[in-house]
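TICKET: design request
STATUS: open
ATTACHED STRUCTURE:
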């Protein structure tokens, strides 16, 4: 018998263990970073749901209730898959969503596609995962005599960075909405390294940034790369990208990954020119109505 109920704070450690075990099984995390932050920093408007089978946690789902959309994610224990747990969790999300439901499918597996189709959801947004080795020589960076690249200064750069980020990602559904609280949460994460958070300045004004992320082992990430629209198309993005890759390489990383929207042709062109190749994808399934 499957029992589905709203999650409680005391279950956080158990949920994180479930997510970690599923990642070992699948090779990727079923929940993205935003979902994990919602789990660790409880917020109004975010629903946490668990499924139990024979008294043991068998799955977890999360629903973020936004003004214009409700975004869900879920994970099922490897030993409980194919037994209706995912369907039961998704039914709860569908019944609870106040706005049209959209559901992230990390890795876009056959099981997640079938589950989304059963709920009447269709493929919408796609995130491509790109990777490249850092053991190979990096391309030459463009020379920009009027641009200086330096590390982020914690306690000083936050307001200016938030403004540049908002302009660079004005049309982005997540990154462009980042608040000071969101920034502070990410800077409080164990992986945060201000030396790997590079900003570009022209005449002492911030015009772009490359925030890198260190994963366990020797894997780095192009976490966020952004350039203010007024400074775009002049090589600033490429200079920042290569500066960040150089820093990740100095830290001893052998590989680097990134996530980019599949329809962002300009960004895809930049990353391909730096040697990145496709390594997977995530899909956001959306309501057909």
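STATUS: resolved
RESOLUTION: sequence designed for all positions
ATTACHED SEQUENCE:
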């Amino acid at each position: 018998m499957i029992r589905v109920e709203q999650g409680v704070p005391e279950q956080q450690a158990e949920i994180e263990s479930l997510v970690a075990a599923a990642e070992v099984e699948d090779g990727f995390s079923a929940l993205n970073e935003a979902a994990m932050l919602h789990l660790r920093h409880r917020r109004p408007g975010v629903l946490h749901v668990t499924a139990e089978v024979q008294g043991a946690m068998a799955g977890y789902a999360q629903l973020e209730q936004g003004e214009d959309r409700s975004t869900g994610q879920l994970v099922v224990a490897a030993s409980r898959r194919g037994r209706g747990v995912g369907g039961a969790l998704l039914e709860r999300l569908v019944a609870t969503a106040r706005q049209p439901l959209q559901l992230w499918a990390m890795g876009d597996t056959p099981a997640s596609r079938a589950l989304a189709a059963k709920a009447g959801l269709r493929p919408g947004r796609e995130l491509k995962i790109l990777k490249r080795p850092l053991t190979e020589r990096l391309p030459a960076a463009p020379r920009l005599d009027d641009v200086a690249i330096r590390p982020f200064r914690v306690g000083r750069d936050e307001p200016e960075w938030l403004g540049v980020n908002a302009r660079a990602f004005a049309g982005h559904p997540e990154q462009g909405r980042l608040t000071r609280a969101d920034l502070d949460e990410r800077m409080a994460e164990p992986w945060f390294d201000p030396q790997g958070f590079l900003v570009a300045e022209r005449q002492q004004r911030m015009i772009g940034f490359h925030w890198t992320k260190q994963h366990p082992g020797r894997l780095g990430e192009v976490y966020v790369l952004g350039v203010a629209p007024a400074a775009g198309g002049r090589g600033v993005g490429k200079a920042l990208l290569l500066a960040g890759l150089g820093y990740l390489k100095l830290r001893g990383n052998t590989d680097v990954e990134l996530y980019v929207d599949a329809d962002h042709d300009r960004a895809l062109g930049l990353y391909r020119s730096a040697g990145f190749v496709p390594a997977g994808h995530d899909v956001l399934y959306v309501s057909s109505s």
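CLOSING REMARK: The helical segments are 12-26, 33-40, 85-96, 110-118, 158-168, 180-187, 236-250, 265-273. The CA atoms of residues 152 and 197 lie 5 Å apart.
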